[in-house]
Design a protein that fits this description.
By secondary structure, the protein is an alpha/beta fold. The chain is built from 19 helices and 24 strands. The N and C termini lie far apart (79 Å).
């Protein structure tokens, strides 16, 4: 059977207990096309990808998958790879004790490196010369800038993402699925990724590009398919792209402005740090954070800007008691406080939403309500005993206000989409009733509708008089949501900008500032 599509998913229906995740979903990808797949968290994208990838094997769902006109029934991820479907997950998954080449061919070392004149060698050892040669050719052909012999432990997050793409390409897929590939990448890494995708398209590889970022859809894709509540909503060609129409299709309603306005007055200073310094955990005689000072007022949203590695998250981790201070002072309501642990921070009225929700934010074996109330057990306890009847009453308002999509408060967080997991993390932080709220990349991996809800929540919190510190690598977001911005570079404060001064070009000028000469002068003065 001839077809214009390299891959088709036809009437895919997937059920879980109490949940219809995919309802007769259809998806098709043309030869040499970049197809965008977009939708809110919980729209059914991840479930569909897991069926394409064989994680949910054939027989566990209704409908059919067709590859180059022939129905396929992948029984596992390895089976899907063998049939021509490559998959790069959102989370980086590399073997850090091995080289780039070993990572790329780890599942196929002998097949790729021990072929001699078309036959397999009986030599039981890996021929690393041929392994590196094969890897060099693969990386060159796909314009991926990596050293085959490089130690993976020394690669940046962006380079590890490229490594995962190269590993998928080594299997020569007919269709390559990229699931939220830019979530943790810097602007330069994103551009490098886009160049690789364009090169793959030119050479005939079909790509399914999953993202929450509309600007990536507009720039990179040829068509976009939109899902909502497990169903197909629409598919548009590039010439038909309209930002507001795509957003409306995603969230099921019109949204006039992504960034809601905030007009509450800024009050007195609530929080201040002076000369915050943190030693580098791995390099002797070097500071990770050096002499950082700033303040936040009642009702104010302070943005922390800077490039990846500038020290923004480390500053907030030190404030929250996750990293020891070398020197510096922290003030709350004009009084100096001492924070050595996260318990100290919470006791003083400081809460934090970490960028890494899986490591620091959630207990995946618990349900939603337990994850929310664990941050403030006093509110649900009496005489050292936790009262179960109070747990639901405490968690319910956060569940409703943050519009967490789940069957009930008893749903395990491991079954939630990434965006709804993030909402649970935020609810957990708010449950401590903080005076100072630190939000580190609060909309990372979240769809546009959920972003808007979180922006409105930030405005509501600031209106109550809370002092908010927000870290974001999304410059338009940071500019729109901040009343004032502190820009960091190389672990130091590079400058401060009022809202009317916060233009992208000025922010980047400060973010790329170098302090090498200042460091040399300080070292000379110390000698």
């Amino acid at each position: 059977m001839e077809t214009n599509y390299v891959l088709e998913a036809v009437n895919i229906t997937k059920r879980f207990p109490g949940v219809l995740a995919n309802d007769a979903v259809c998806l098709n990808v043309k030869y040499g096309e970049v197809l965008g797949l977009i939708g809110e968290n919980g729209a059914g994208k991840s479930t569909l990808l897991k069926m394409l990838n064989g994680i949910y094997p054939s027989g566990s769902y209704e409908g059919s998958l067709v590859l180059e006109g022939t129905e396929i029934k992948p029984s596992s991820p390895l089976d899907a790879i063998r049939q021509g479907i490559g998959y790069v997950p959102q989370e980086t998954n590399v073997l850090k004790n091995f080289s780039v080449a070993e990572n790329i061919y780890m599942s196929n070392l002998r097949l790729e490196s021990l072929q001699v004149q078309g036959r397999h060698s009986k030599n039981p050892f890996v021929d690393f010369g041929k392994l590196y040669q094969a890897c060099t050719e693969l990386l060159k052909d796909n314009k991926i800038d990596l050293d085959p012999k490089a130690d993976v432990r020394k690669l940046s997050v962006g380079q590890q993402q490229m490594l995962m793409i190269a590993r998928a390409l080594a299997t020569k897929p007919k269709v390559l699925i990229l699931d939220e590939p830019t979530t943790s990448l810097s602007a330069s890494d994103v551009e490098s990724l886009f160049e690789v995708v364009r090169n793959l398209k030119e050479h005939g590889t079909s790509i399914i590009f999953v993202t929450h970022k509309l600007e990536e859809i507009l720039e990179l894709t040829d068509r976009v398919t939109i899902l909502r509540d497990g169903r197909n909503i629409s598919t548009y060609k590039k010439a038909e792209y309209d930002t507001m129409r795509i957003i409306a299709d995603m969230i099921g309603r019109q949204m006039s402005d992504l960034y809601p306005t905030r007009d509450n007055p800024v009050g007195e200073e609530i929080f201040r740090v002076e000369g915050l310094t943190v030693e580098h955990p791995y390099i002797a005689n070097r500071d990770l954070i050096h002499e950082v000072s700033f303040s936040v007022h009642s009702g104010e949203v302070l943005g922390l800007g800077g490039l990846v590695g500038a020290g923004r998250s480390e500053v907030c981790s030190a404030i929250y008691g996750m990293m020891p201070l070398k020197s510096g002072k922290i003030f709350l309501d004009q009084k100096e406080i001492h924070i050595r642990t996260t318990e100290d921070a919470v006791r003083h009225g400081i809460s934090m939403v970490s960028e890494d929700r899986k490591r620091y934010g959630l207990n995946f074996s618990w349900d939603i309500q337990k994850n929310i109330v664990i941050s403030n057990l006093k509110a649900v306890s009496h005489a050292c005993f936790v009262l179960r009847q109070k747990i639901r009453g405490r968690a319910e308002p956060y569940f409703q206000d943050l519009r967490i999509k789940a069957p009930s408060l008893n749903t395990r967080v491991a079954t939630l989409s990434g965006g709804n997991q993030q909402k649970v993390v935020i609810a957990r932080a708010l449950n401590t009733e903080p005076k100072v709220i630190i939000l580190d990349e609060p909309t990372k991996g979240i769809d546009v509708g959920s972003k808007n809800e979180i922006y409105q929540l930030i405005n509501q919190l600031s209106a109550t008089g809370a002092a908010i510190i927000i870290i974001s690598s999304d410059l338009p977001e940071l500019i729109a949501m901040s009343d004032r911005m502190v820009i960091m570079a190389e672990g130091r404060v590079a400058g401060e900008l009022q809202k009317d001064e916060a233009k992208e070009i000025r922010i980047m000028q400060l973010a790329t500032k170098t302090f090498r000469n200042e460091e040399k002068r300080e070292q000379q003065a110390a000698v």
